[in-house]
Each structure stands twice: as structure tokens, then as C-alpha cells.
Amino acid sequence: MLITIASGKGGTGKTTVAVNLALTLKELLPVVLLDCDVEEPNVHLFLQPVVNESEKVMTTVPKIDGNKCDGCGKCSEFCAFNAIAIVKGKPITFPELCHSCRGCTLVCPTGAITETPRQIGLVEKGTWSVIKTAKGTLKIGSPLAPMVVDAVRNTAPLHHGDQAVIIDASPGTSCAVVAAAKDTDFCLLVTEPTPFGLNDLTLAVELAKKLGLPHGVVINRAGLGDHSVYDYCHEADIPILMEIPFDTKYAACYARGGRLVEEFPDLSDRFLKLWDVIQHHAKRHQREEPKT
Amino acid sequence: MKEFLVISGKGGTGKTSITAGFAALAGDIVLADCDVDAANLHMLLEPVTYHTEEFIGSRKATIDPTHCSNCRLCQESCRFNAITSTEIACTVNPLSCEGCGVCSFVCPKGAITMHDHVSGHWFLSDTRYGPLVHARLGIAEENSGKLVAKVREQAQRIAQEKDVEYILVDGPPGTGCPVISSISGVDLALIVTEPTIAGLHDLERVRQLAGHFDVPVMVCINKYDLDEAYTRKIELYCQKQQIELAGRIPFDRNVVSALVRGIPAVAYAAPSTSENSAAKAIGDVWQAVRNRLLA
Q1: Is A292 on the interface with B (CB under 8 A)?
Q2: Which of A193, A145, A194 is nearest to B43 (CA)?
Q3: What is the pLDDT of residue B268?
Q4: Which of B182, B179, B168, B172 minimizes the C-alpha distance to B20?
Q5: Within a domain: B123
Q6: Which domain does B82 fall in, by range?
Q7: Which residues 195-214 of chain A have a CB within 8 Å of chain B?
Q8: At the topology level of CATH, where does A66-111 sit?
Q9: Are both B142 and B191 inside the same structural domain?
Q10: Lower CB count within 10 Å: N or C terminus of chain B?
Q11: Cβ <8 Å between A80 and B99
Q12: Contacting A residues, span 119-178, partner chain B, CB-CB under 8 Å
């Protein structure tokens, strides 16, 4: 089972849910926890895994041979990402904008452009207790988060039928979240019961629908705010799978990097039940809409 | 004209509630919501939108199956795995297509065309605190950085036309494409953090990003009283890094109450408003930021 934890709004408790779900399940089945919030990865603050393998995430960017370039500008014209400009007949590249499509290399009539590697991030594989982890970190100043997310996803076992692979995604609904959520078995949406939480939840639901993923909601900090998230879920027929009450004790535990299910063992039952209902919904979805 | 950005690295630290507070206090400003992925600022400002425009953020490839010879050269050339081939012809998965145009270039049959793709909308609105430029990136879209650039460009245009002193920008979380587009070239960034291990970790990364773009920063610690030991840790970190603190804001349920009513916390007159309210602290932070902007 491969599930993604997403949210729309930031700071709703994605990482808390991912980490504590992993902790709850670790005695029962093999657990893999992938930190795909590569802009601000946080899982390692709560589980401090021993890193046993790290790999640079590389991309390729153009390298232009000034002797061969005649300044025709075809590369700059072709580039859809504004990563090459011709200034006073000379090409200037902006490697941080390059998407590595190789278009410039193909269109250059003088063969002046070759590809050269560039690092955009890092993937670190590790273990914490029996949990296998992988964390992606986007290099500061690099905008290409989805590529690093893909690299983290690629560390997951290919056949994960009897395992729990849990993906912690970044906030929002754009390409980086798509990379984290696509082709998973279930999308768990963590929100808080406030108007901001509701607004961003509706966006996250649209994303899950667009990707054809079965989805359900976790309401964190229940008791704070208003009832609108509950009303929305009820009307839109989206299951609320778990609530975590607002409690300054929980907030304090999170603040110093503590693990909720260890400090408050009564929460384990909620996470166990959460896993059961996720499986139930994911399997029902598979029966109803088998993957082609 | 000065551009002032509110960012956080970590999501959910209170950027938007604080930005809305500044908006209510600042007077002569133009507002820009650059969290185009999950915009919220408008929810506290009751905007009246007078202009909506489509945002063409990219192109997408389309393959005409009647001209496709199914040679699969496009599939081999696509770096984004956006092309699949059936027995009859190749097809493009628009979710994966980044619009580079390589497939169209290599196709020997000229079967592939590139067409503009609407990936969101941007809006011009009026609010009681000043003009607001905001946007909505479509679901599962890319190029949020370009849309952010559009929002900033419009805000700058309005500020110039109306001869307004400040542009107040609500930024997105993270350090990726839309954050880079939001931060480059602003005069000052306020990093809103919270007294948690993740808050400090993400503050460090976003500070590095600001350094990368030579943008001066200040820090404000929201909900500081939820963990005063961690608040001190963050303050020590700032001292060490020589980052000026703009202030602390206490955890205050009135911020949530104001949010539920759709108004900035500073405009929400709760009966129990005490000296130690978030509203008062937001005012103090704004003073500190303003002094720095004027310096």
C-alpha cells in the first residue's frame, strides 16, 4: 500500500500524521517513510534515521562552446523556460531555470551546445528502528522540486503490496505535490477546521480527483475554529478518517520534536484505525475502478 | 516604492494572518498575494474583484493521430516521460508535459503541435485597505513562479500609477520555484516562524535562500508562548546570525476567531482584548518592520 499525505495548506500536520502512522505500523508490517517535502523536509527532526546511502540528484544543463557558437539565437528562441539569452551576440545561460529538455542541443545548427551535469538536490536513504526512510532535499536556490521528489519516490520498493509506503508531500496543489501523489493507492488530506484550512482542503480534494486517487480527511487541531470543514466533507461525501484534538500538550510535544504516539499511547489506536479505514477505502476504489 | 515580503519556509506559521494585520495598519499600500498555489489573503480582506485574466503559463503538446506514424521518436526524446504509445499512435499526458517543444521538433511527420495552456487566473481587486493583486494557479499545474512574477508586476504597476509607498507581499511556503520568484529583488523579507523544531529548521533554509538572493531579513516568532524555551533558542540563533528580531506574537484564540469572521486579527475587537494580545503584538512587529524599511 502506497499512500500520500498531502494538505493544500501548510502547517496542518502532514509530517505529524506521517511520522506517527509509521511509528504505529512498524511492529505490524514493513514500513517505508518517504519525505517528499523536498523544499522543507522535516521527518528527520522527529525520527533521526541513520543514513546509509546518499545520492546526489543531478540534472543536465547546456554548456555552450563560444568558439563554435555564431550567436544565431535559435537556442534562446526554442527554450520554453527562458534559460538562454543572447546578449550582444553572445549566449548567456541561466542554469537554475533549465528543465533539461535538451531542446537547445538539438536545435543548435553549429553543434556548439553540449550537456553538462548540475546538482539540484540530495536523496538520503536510511533506517530508524525497523522503519526505512528516504529524504529528499532541494538545493537552496534551485526551483526544480518535482525532479527531487521523483528521485525520492524511485527509492521505494517496486512491489509494495504487503508494506506500508508513506509519502509526506509538500503543501499546495502544484507540480511538486503531483509528483508526490501520482500513482499512489490513497491520498490522505490533513487539514485544520478553519476557513483557511477549508479553502485549501477544497483545492487538495480537486487535486486528488484530478489524479483519480481515493482520498479522505484527517482533521487536526479539532476544536479550534469552526464547523465549516465538517459541513463541507459531509456535503461533498468525503470521509473524515480521523480527528486529532487541539491540545497544548500535543503542540508542546511536536514543538520539541517529540513523537505523539510514544508520549500519548492512547493515540496509537486512532492511527491503527486510520490505517484500517485507509486500506478499506483504497481496496474498494481498486475494486470499483481497476487500474488499466 | 518598496517591496516588503512575508515568508516562512514552513507552512502554517501565520504568514497570512500577520500580513492581513499589516495591511490594516499600514495605510497607503498595494497588496500582493504570491501564494498562488493556495491563496488565502483575500479571505480576510473582502475584496471586490474588478478584473480577471487568464494566465498562460506554458504550452502543451498535442499529437494528431492521423499524421502520427507511430515511430516513437517523440517518446524517446521526451525527458519528462510525457508520451506513451499505443498500437496506433503516440499520445501526450498533459499532466507530465512541460511544454519544452522537443517532441514537436523531432517529429518527422509534423504531427505534433504546441498550443498555449491556461494554467491559472490572476485578479485585480479593491479592498478597504488598498488594491489587491492575487491569483489562482490551476490544480496540478506548474510554472507557479511565472504567475508570481505576473502578480508582482501588476502590483508594481499599480503602485507606480497611484504613487504608493509600499507593496506588501504575502509569500508562499517552501524554498522552491514560487518562493524564488517572490523573493528576488524585494527590499526586505520578514520570516514568520514558530517555536518548534520544524520552525527553526525551515527558518534556517529560507534564510539561506534570502542570502542567496541578497535580500535582508527580519524574523518574527509567532505563537511564541507555546514553547518559550524554543522561542529563546530561535532568538539565540537570530542573534548568532545577526538577524534583527521584529518581535514575538503570542498564541491567541482571537486570531482564529477573526479568521472565522473573515477579518484581520487587528480589526477584531474581542471583548477580552488584553495587553498581551496577538493584535497588539502584530502592531509592534509592524512598527519594527516599518522602521527598518524607512532606515
Answers
A1: no
A2: A194
A3: 87
A4: B168
A5: no
A6: 58-118
A7: 195-196, 199-200, 203, 206-207, 210-211
A8: Alpha-Beta Plaits (3.30.70)
A9: yes
A10: C
A11: yes
A12: 138, 140-146, 170-178
